[in-house]
Amino acid sequence: MKNIEILRIMSLRGPNIWTYRSTLEAWIDIGELEDFPSNTLPGFNQRLTSWLPTLIEHRCSYGERGGFVQRLQDGTWPGHILEHVTLELQNLAGMPGGFGKARSTSVRGVYKVAVRARHEQVTRAALHAARDLVMAAIEDKPFDVPATITELRSMVDSRCLGPSTACIVEAADERRIPSFRLTEGNLVQLGHGIRQRRIWTAETDQTSAIAESISSDKDLTKSLLQACGVPVPEGQLVESAAEAWEAAEDIGLPVVVKPSDANHGRGVFIDLNTQAEIETAYTLALQEGSSVIVERFIRGNEHRLLIVGGRLAAAARGEPLSISGDGKSTIRQLIDSQINSDPRRGELEECPLSLVLLDDEPVVRVELERQGFNGESIPPAGKQVLIQRNGNVSIDVTDLVHPSVAAAASLAARVVGLDIAGVDLVAEDISRPLEEQRGAIVEVNAGPGLLMHLKPAEGRPRPVGRAIIEHLFAAANNGRIPIVGVTGTHGKTTVSRLIAWQLHLSGNHVGLACGDGLYFAQRQVEKGDRANWESAQRVLINRAVEAAVFENSHDTILSEGLVYDRCQVGVVTNIAAGDSSPQYYISDAEEMVKVTRTQVDVVLPSGVAVLNAADPLVAGMASLCDGEVIFFGLSPTLPVIAEQLEQDKRAVFVRNDQIMLAVGKNEMLLADIATVPLIARSKDSFQVENVLAAVAAAWALDISHDLIRAGIETFEMA
Fold first, then answer.
1. Cα(366)–Cα(354) distance, integer angstroms
2. DSSP per position, 418-434
3. Using one digit for the tens of pLDDT, what is the confidence trace for 119-147?
4. How far is CA 609 from the centre of its chain?
């Protein structure tokens, strides 16, 4: 029976044997289909490409548009097809991921399929949907592609990062600043350990709770701004509809009535001129907040200025929203056809403009009533009907903002205490000082939305994510702490613990996840094997950690990936003859090199790979390293070390029972073997190599020679 069976799915959340990025690896068994490539299945290619015509964009191994379709015509197998269909379903759902691979294993019919996974659950769903789609195409059965894409898109919208958070994370990625998603929501850690920062949409770990509370109290905000000389509209809190009218008479008509503590413009009624309008507005505004403010109406358009770290990052203008009557359609119908039909409008977070929902918008209903209409009215042909005086159409005006206006907005953010703020002001001309036109700042908002600046209705998008990253991280700060990764067949735990001890002696608060447990500052907080992704992540999210050491077994790399994207030092101890992982279809040491090299691949250009000169498979990884290489070995006569020294590069070796550090012809005695307890108690050569590997790693970390010596002479394995 022809079938595709998914045997196992692994989430490789960090760098792995496939790629630097998070990946989903599926093992599939195609059974009898091994004997039926795509060009032998009647009608299969036509059905598949008619369901997914965008597969034409997949370049595949041909490296050109239409490459994958050509492979289908030439004949390819279901593992390869499943890879491309999974990727395309993700693309169509709004979660692009270009990387994919399919490889056969040593077992006939069993394949490994790897695809980029920006969100594990979404990619899992796409993989299962792709399997069902491919099988339907093979069996000539119906398959509802639009419904599948709709379901996947819903998952993307509900589970992936929102556009505001995503743009910040993308800006961090451009700066090579690592990131972790800490919850299923938008809480993200940027950087590692003590150098980390945290964001939640457009709020940061510098956004104080006090400042947020002040910004949500509009009356308090206004009084503080007024005290500091920031132009604000006159106004007062009122406790009844009658008091609202009295306040309006005192202030002078027209006025604005709004809740004192609502946001997103809910319950804000502007340009009110009659007692009936004001009393009605009071009642509706009170439904959106705990109290109501009446304040002077300011003529002009509402503007949103995004202030980041005291500087103007972007500015957008809102304009009145209107419809035009056709003499046949109701206002409700015209809103749907002329406003809500705009593809930029929607309920999803990725939509820069909101839908106008008449039943949910008391402000719109009041505006219509002022013009003598309601939702069922049919305005005459050509009649312009105002729907919102400040519609959420966002027009970029960043380049037009007068310096004094930007300074006033920056001052407003500082007065409230917000490092990132959305400052709302009303002015007729943003390019002129506010004082000239009686303009004023009306609100200061914490956690402002960024989408209006990323996708303005008019004007160019602004790099607001980059502005936030530059605010959080100085130019020379990439949020990284020194990270050391250790892998190999033997000695990983010993080497990891010895490196952590030397970092500890050099004054660092060290996090260590290894085969002996989880350690912070040499205190064991968990026993047992903690050389895994979860324990390593606990190290990197710990704000006290100044340096980290991780043991990475072959199984961890194969089943979870590395927890870090790059490291300062990568150590490979050895690859034993006959080493294999048959449970992962890795059958020999040569294939194990592809696993082990992952540790070398992630060494930073400014970092160092520490490699065993006596192991040809390990030494051969030197060319894969982006940074420097330090070789270690039992003798300076090892060919690899001899060549290294001839090139004036660094090596660590033993000469006459003494550990030596060498750069070219310059050698320095570090310590006698007899003074190193780890070696003195065991004359085994592998233990000497463990010490040499740790010494080389400490040297790569610029730890002083005296501290390296002290480290190896005082280290004791518990």
1. 19
2. -SEEEEEEEES-TTS-G
3. 999 999 999 999 999 999 999 999 999 99
4. 28
